[in-house]
C-alpha cells in the first residue's frame, strides 16, 4: 500500500485541528464553580450514579458489617415522575415556507412537513426518541443531538437461490447503497467539546468538536470509501518514529492507552472560518466547508439543558440528581441510621456483671435454642437499653421528603399518594408540578425546534439526489437512467380529512410530471383496494430557494394525566351542584354524559335503560330531598329511599375522592 504523504497544506490543516482540540480539552477538564469545583466528567458521573441509586461499599464509608447501607431510589423515582408528562408523545410539527419575497407557499410547507415526518418514522421510533431526550437531559443536565445524513455504499451478497434440503446458497455480490437517509444520533456530553464554556447557544460557539472512538469494522463501514481512509493506522500499527511523526502521534497516542486497535475520530466544525474537517489518527479524511446551510451556516447539533445554573450563560445545564443531592443524602443518612437503630432495638446487647463473665464468654460462636448458659447471679445479666425510633425522628424524615417534593414532584402527582387523593388535591398537585416541569418543558420544546430546523436543512440538501440505475433494454443493452426517491408518510391526515398514506414522488423536471388526472386515477385505484392514498409529485428543485419556519404544537408535547382530567370534571360537577342546584337538576343527564365520557365510557348504554325522569319522578325527588331528616328547596322528606339522598350528598361533597394519578 502506498505510504501516506500529506501535503504541506494538509499538515497545516491537521495541526490546526489538533491545536484547537487541545484548547477545547482544557475547557472540558477545568473545574467550575457551577459544578461545585468539579469537572464536567465528575459532575456527570455523580449525577448518573445518583440516578442509578449507586451505593458505595461499607468499607469506603467506614461502616460496620451489620450497618445498613442503602441509597433510596427517590432520585430515580423523581426523574420518572418529572418527565412522564413532557416526554411521552412526539410533538406535532408545522412548517411554513417563504420565498425570497417573503410570500407564503402553503403546498411547499405541507410537503416539507410530510418529508420531515417521514424522515423521523422511517427507521426510528419517535416515542422512544422523545423519552430519551427527556431522560438523558434530566439526568445529565445537558442533551446534545446530531442531525446529519447517512449514505453508505457497501458490498452486498444478493441471494439468488437457497436449497432448504442441502443448505446450498447461491448469491451474487454487488456494490449497493445500503444506507441513504437522514439520521439523528445521541452525542454523549463528555464527547462534545466547545471552545468557550460561557456561551450558552451551541450555534454561537466559535468552534465545536465531536470525538468518537471506532473499532476497525465501524471505521470501514462509515469511512471506507473516503479517499484517505485507507491510510489511517492504529497505534499498534505504527512501527517507526518517522511514522509516528507523519501521523501526528504525539497529538493522539497518549489518549489511546487501552485502545491500541481503535481509531480516534475527531470531527471539527468552525462557522467563522467555514471549516468542516475529519481527522482520524493523524490522517485528514475530509476537509470541506460546513455542509449545513446555504448562506447562513449552521452546526449540525441541537442542544438543550434541564435547568440553568445561576450564571445563565454557562454552556452546560444543572441536573435533577444534582438539585436533589442535599435532601437525598440526608434522607439516605436518616434511613440508614433509623434502620440501624431498629436493628439494635431488636437485637440488644447484654450488660453482664463480672461475676458471670466466664459463663458468657461465647463471642463469635453459634448458639441455638438448646444452648444452656449457667450464671451465678441472674440479676447481673440484663439487656442494654436501646431507644427505639421516635416521632421526632420520623418528623425529620418527613421534612426531608417534603423538601424533595418541593424540588420536583410530590407523591400525589407522582402517582404514589397512598389511599387516594381528592379532586382538589390532584389539581393543586398538578398545578405545582407543572410549574416545576414547565421550565424543562420549555427547554425540551426548544430542542425539538432546533432538531427540526436541522432536519429541514438535511432534507433540502439530499431529497433531490438522484440514483443512477442501469435498465436493460429490449436489445439487451444497458441504458442508464436517473431515479429519484419516493417518500412514504404512513398514517397521515389526508386532504379529505381521512387517515391514510401520503406519497411524495420526486421527478427530475416538469416534463416528468404526470398528466392531469393521472394521479387521481392512481389514488382511486388504491382506494378501491382499501388503501387510502394521496399522491404528490414535485420536481427536484421544488423546495429550493425557500426558507422554512418551524413551529412545535405545545399542547401535543405537554401531556396531562387522565386523573387530572377526571378531577377537573368532578370539580366542575361539584361546583354546579353546590352553587346552582336548580341548573344541575335540570341538566343532570348532560352532566352524567360528561362524567362518563371522562372515563371513556358510553353514557347511552346507561341512559337507554332509564325511564324518562319527569317532575313527579320519585328518583328526582329522592335526589333533591337530601339526607334523611332534611328537606331541600325542591323536594320533600326522603324517608323511603335515604340512599338517594346520600347520593346527592356525595356528589356535592368537597371531599369526594378519585383514584390516584395514572
Architecture overview:
There is one protein chain. The radius of gyration is 35 Å and the shape is extended. The chain contains 22 helices and 20 strands. The two termini are 64 Å apart. It is α+β, with helices and mostly antiparallel strands. Residues 412-420, 556-561 and 626-662 have low confidence and may be disordered. The strands form 7 sheets. A 5-stranded antiparallel sheet has the order 5-6-7-8-9. A 3-stranded antiparallel sheet has the order 2-1-19. Strands 4-3-10 form a 3-stranded antiparallel sheet. Helix 15 (518-528) links the parallel strand 17 (499-507) and strand 18.
Task: Kindly summarize this structure in a few lines.
The protein is of the alpha+beta class and 662 residues long.
Amino acid at each position: 500500500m502506498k505510504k501516506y504523504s500529506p501535503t504541506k497544506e494538509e499538515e497545516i490543516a491537521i495541526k490546526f485541528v489538533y491545536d484547537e482540540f487541545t484548547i477545547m480539552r482544557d475547557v472540558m477538564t477545568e473545574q467550575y464553580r457551577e459544578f461545585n469545583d468539579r469537572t464536567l466528567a465528575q459532575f456527570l458521573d455523580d449525577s448518573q450514579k445518583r440516578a442509578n441509586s449507586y451505593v458505595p461499599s461499607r468499607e469506603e464509608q467506614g461502616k460496620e458489617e451489620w450497618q445498613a447501607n442503602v441509597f433510596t431510589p427517590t432520585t430515580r423515582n423523581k426523574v420518572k415522575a418529572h418527565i412522564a408528562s413532557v416526554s411521552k408523545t412526539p410533538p406535532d410539527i408545522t412548517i411554513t415556507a417563504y420565498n425570497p419575497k417573503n410570500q407564503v407557499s402553503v403546498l411547499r410547507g405541507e410537503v416539507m412537513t410530510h418529508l420531515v415526518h417521514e424522515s423521523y418514522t422511517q427507521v426510528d421510533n419517535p416515542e422512544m426518541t422523545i423519552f430519551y431526550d427527556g431522560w438523558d437531559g434530566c439526568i445529565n443536565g445537558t442533551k446534545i443531538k446530531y442531525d446529519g445524513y447517512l449514505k453508505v455504499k457497501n458490498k452486498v451478497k444478493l441471494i439468488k437461490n437457497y436449497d432448504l434440503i442441502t443448505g446450498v446458497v447461491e448469491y451474487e455480490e454487488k456494490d449497493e447503497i445500503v444506507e441513504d437517509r437522514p439520521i439523528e444520533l445521541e452525542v454523549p456530553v463528555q464527547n462534545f467539546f466547545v471552545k468557550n464554556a460561557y456561551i450558552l447557544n451551541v450555534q454561537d460557539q466559535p468552534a465545536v468538536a465531536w470525538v468518537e472512538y471506532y473499532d476497525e469494522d465501524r471505521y470501514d463501514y462509515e469511512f471506507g470509501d473516503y479517499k484517505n481512509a485507507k491510510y489511517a493506522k492504529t497505534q499498534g500499527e505504527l512501527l517507526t518514529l518517522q511514522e509516528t511523526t507523519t501521523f501526528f502521534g504525539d497529538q493522539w497516542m497518549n489518549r489511546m492507552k487501552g485502545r491500541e486497535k481503535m481509531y480516534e475520530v475527531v470531527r471539527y466544525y468552525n462557522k467563522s472560518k467555514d471549516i468542516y474537517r475529519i481527522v482520524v489518527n493523524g490522517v485528514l479524511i475530509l476537509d470541506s466547508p460546513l455542509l449545513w446551510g446555504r448562506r447562513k451556516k449552521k452546526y449540525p447539533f441541537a442542544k438543550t439543558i434541564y435547568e440553568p445554573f445561576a450564571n445563565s450563560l454557562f454552556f452546560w445545564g444543572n441536573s435533577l440528581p444534582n438539585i436533589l443531592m442535599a435532601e437525598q443524602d440526608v434522607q439516605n443518612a436518616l434511613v440508614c441510621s433509623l434502620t440501624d437503630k431498629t436493628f439494635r432495638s431488636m437485637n440488644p446487647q447484654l450488660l453482664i456483671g463480672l461475676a458471670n463473665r466466664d459463663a458468657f464468654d461465647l463471642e463469635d460462636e453459634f448458639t441455638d435454642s438448646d444452648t444452656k448458659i449457667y450464671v451465678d447471679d441472674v440479676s447481673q445479666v440484663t439487656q442494654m437499653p436501646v431507644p427505639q425510633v421516635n416521632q421526632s425522628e420520623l418528623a425529620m424524615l418527613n421534612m426531608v421528603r417534603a423538601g424533595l417534593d418541593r424540588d420536583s414532584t410530590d407523591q400525589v402527582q407522582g402517582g404514589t399518594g397512598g389511599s387516594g387523593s381528592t379532586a382538589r388535591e390532584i389539581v393543586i398537585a398538578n398545578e405545582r408540578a407543572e410549574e416545576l416541569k414547565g421550565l424543562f418543558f420549555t427547554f425540551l420544546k426548544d430542542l425539538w425546534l432546533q432538531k427540526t430546523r436541522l432536519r429541514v436543512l438535511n432534507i433540502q440538501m439530499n431529497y433531490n439526489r438522484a440514483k443512477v440505475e442501469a435498465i436493460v433494454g429490449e436489445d439487451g443493452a444497458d441504458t442508464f437512467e436517473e431515479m429519484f426517491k419516493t417518500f412514504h408518510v404512513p398514517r397521515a391526515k389526508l386532504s379529505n380529512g381521512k387517515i391514510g398514506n401520503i406519497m411524495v414522488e420526486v421527478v427530475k423536471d416538469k416534463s416528468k410530471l404526470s398528466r392531469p388526472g393521472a394521479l387521481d386515477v392512481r389514488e382511486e385505484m388504491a382506494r378501491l383496494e382499501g388503501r387510502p392514498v394521496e399522491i404528490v409529485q414535485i420536481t427536484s428543485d421544488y423546495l429550493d430557494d425557500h426558507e422554512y419556519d418551524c413551529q412545535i404544537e405545545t399542547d401535543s408535547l405537554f401531556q396531562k394525566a387522565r386523573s387530572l382530567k377526571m378531577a377537573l370534571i368532578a370539580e366542575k360537577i361539584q361546583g354546579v351542584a353546590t352553587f346552582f342546584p336548580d341548573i344541575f337538576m335540570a341538566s343532570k343527564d348532560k352532566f352524567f354524559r360528561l362524567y362518563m365520557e371522562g372515563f371513556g365510557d358510553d353514557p347511552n348504554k346507561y341512559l337507554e335503560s332509564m325511564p324518562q325522569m319527569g317532575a313527579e319522578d320519585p328518583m328526582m325527588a329522592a335526589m333533591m330531598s337530601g339526607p334523611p331528616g332534611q328537606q331541600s328547596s325542591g323536594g320533600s322528606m326522603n324517608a323511603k329511599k335515604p340512599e338517594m339522598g346520600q347520593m346527592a350528598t356525595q356528589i356535592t361533597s368537597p371531599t369526594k375522592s378519585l383514584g390516584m394519578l395514572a
